[in-house]
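Target protein
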Amino acid sequence: MKIISQGIDLAECERIGQLLERHPDRFTDRILTPAERENAKKYKDPVPHITGRFAAKEAILKALGTGWRGQIAWTDMEILNDASGCPSAKLSGECACVAERLGIERMLISITHTKQFAAASAIAVSDEA
């Protein structure tokens, strides 16, 4: 495995919570994929979970070296957990195109959160040695 780049982000749960209060459907439709929105419904307090997904997507954009601009959509990145709870990222659209140009085959994702903050790390890797 070869590490190509990495990104990290820290997001405030209160800020995301305020956005969810003011624009619940608009915000979630713009930021989360349908599967991510469905997954967030499982939580009594979805704000830390959603904030973690937001931080992970920001970290991915940093690992891609693009930031959020151009043709990139927040829903070009989907963060779901596997059966053991480990988050994984699936890229599509412009994010997948950028990743392919950079030789990125996978994004390794780690997310942590408290009631106040969520942090995420994204490591872009290639499976070649």
